[in-house]
Amino acid sequence: MRRPKFGVQTSKYPAVDGVVHRQSPGRPRTTSRALDRNILRACREDPRRTSTDIQVSVTSPNKPVPLRRTIRRRLQVAGLHGRRPVKKQLVSLKNRKARVEWAKQHLSWGPREWANHIWSDELKFKIYAPQYQCPTVKHGGGSVMVWGCFSDTSMGLLKIIFGTMDRYVYEDILENTMRPWARANLGRSGVFQQDNDPKHTSGHVTNWFRRRRMDLLGWPKRRLKGVRASNANQKFAQLEAAWKSISMTVVQTILDSIPRRCQAVIDAKGYPTKY
C-alpha cells in the first residue's frame, strides 16, 4: 500500500505582520476616491456639463487626466445618466419673480374667489400637420386662428379670426362676442383674464376695459392634436365641435388644480413647470 504524500502548502499572498495582503483582480482604477467625488460634485453643480467639461474642471496639473469614458462610467455607477434636456420656454429673472409673486397671491384662492372669472386665449391651428405638407405644393395648407373663453359655470363662444388679429379685431371680439356672453352668464361682476400679448395690453384695448368698467385679472409674463382638414371651414368646424364637447367637469378640474399649479410655480422658483 502506498503511503499518502503530505506537503506543506504555501500561500501566494505573503503575510506581513500577520495580515495577508491580496492583490485586487483586474486593472487598477485610474481615479482615486477624491477624484470620483469631484466628478460627481461637478456634475451635480451643473447638470448641463458634458464629460469634456467635467474632464477640464477636475483635472489637476500633477495628476493624470481621466478619460471621458471613465468619467461617464463613474457617473453611471452613481446613477447619473446622460439625458437630452427638455426644451422649455425661456423665462427671464423679472418674469420669474412676477410668476412667483402671482402664485403666492392666489395660492389660497378657492372656488368662491375664482367664481365670475372669465378665462380667454387665442390660438392658431394648422390645417395640415407638417408631415402631411409637401414643399412643392403651391396651394393648400394654411391655418385657422380661433378665440375662446369660459368661466366656472359655462363654456363661452368660439370665434374664428380672419386675417391678422390686431387691437381693433380684438376690441371687436370683446365688444360683440365676449361682453354679450358675459352679461348673459355672469352679469356685471365678471373679472376678465388675458395674457400679456401686445394687442391685449395696448392703450386702445385698455381704454375699452376702462370704458366698460370691467376688471382685469393681473397676469405675469395645449394644443388640439392634429386632425386633417381640407380647408379652413372644415378645420373650424372640427375645432368648434371639440370646443362644445368640453364638459364643465373638465373646467372645474382645471380650476381646482390652480392651487397645485401655484405651488408648482413657487417650488420651481418661477421656472416652467410640468403644467
From TrEMBL:
InterPro entries: RNaseH_sf, Transposase_5, Transposase_Tc1-like. GO terms for molecular function: DNA binding. GO terms for biological process: DNA integration; DNA transposition. It holds the Pfam family HTH_Tnp_Tc3_2. Residues 36-107 form the Transposase Tc1-like domain. It comes from the Eukaryota. This is HTH_Tnp_Tc3_2 domain-containing protein. It comes from Caenorhabditis japonica. The lineage of its organism: Eukaryota, Metazoa, Ecdysozoa, Nematoda, Chromadorea.
